[in-house]
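The records we work with from here on pair a chain with its fold. Each token is a code from a learned vocabulary of local backbone shapes. A record is reproduced here so that you can trace the correspondence yourselves:

_____
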Amino acid sequence: MELFSTSLSFCRVQSPPNPKLFHLRAISARVNGIGLGIRTLPGREWCDGSKSMAVSGLARASKREDGLPESLGGGILVGSSLTVMLAVMNRVLYKLALVPLKNYPFFLAQITTFGYVAVYFTVLYLRYRSGIVTREMLALPKSRFAAIGFLEAIGVASGMASAAMLPGPAIPILNQSFLVWQLVFSVLILGRKYSSNQILGCLLVTAGVIIAVASGSGGGQVMSQVELLWPALMIASAAFQSGASILKEFVFIDGAARLKQGKPPDIFFVNSFGSGFQALFVFLLLPILSNLRGIPFSELPAYLKSGAGCFLNFGGSLVDCRGAPLLPLLFIATNMAFNISLLNLVKMTSALVASLAATLAVPISIYVLSLPLPYLPHGTSLNTSFIIGSAILVLGLILYNLPKPKDELKI
């Protein structure tokens, strides 16, 4: 599972160096704790050496070479608007879900993780029965999924712990550091090369995050009452989950080489086992993670019991759990709806359009989270430094996703 920021990469379709090779098309997305490796059906397109993931050739809307649709029909506009709306709701409900469970973020992480395990394995079983997932695919090595689950478990637990302590507008800002970590790890692990506009975009994202975090240095600022530990923990959470997304991408590439006919592993096979190991490690790491919050191992059963009572809002002294279980359940349902909407938008248009839609949701989310909301009645004042940092960050995201010129050399 991952949080909030979405990095959808695409590449220019080229002639394959070997007609027998099939291009592995995947999109690495990171949304609210859910690591998505989105794969379309194998096709005959081939991506250049950057290993960036191409857009589905089966998309219903015809696209130009730069990844943008040739025309914006009503369906595309509705799909894009719905994706932006759900992305904003997703970010807002994430913060609201942690209001009643502020003292139990690890319990919410466990519930969310097990919920997705149930959904993924149910879909995996149906796809196995239909023949989409094969025995050969299920026999692929599971050690990499254990590594993915371990990184995602630390990422989602630390992300929820820090989000519970951070002001709402700071969360979508800090989560965009995922893009920077992803660039660094993909260069180190996958040997990927990036264009100059992508590198400049990441530098702007970094600068925007730094300026936004530095806005808390004075009294009355957005993050003036927040200890440096919490934004640092959120950025570290992005690093763990970015590493998990890179490992997922490696699983797709390596799986295509291991399986017959060069077909990549099914997306639900990868996500099911990744989420299964994630749920296992969240459970195993719970004593260590809770100890970091001052909860000794001997009090862990009582903590889980209190967390369950707060989640269900059942008990005589749970005055701080107002909004549960409605808000956590709304967050989980909205997160699933957003994931489906994002996948559908990629299918209708391209990864570029989906990425720009997710980027547009960032400033809207910052603004909405600064307003007085149910269970967050006081709102947050956005100072000038925070607004400038946010604007620089969004500019970096847009620049990163700009179509690359045909003749531009990779750096």
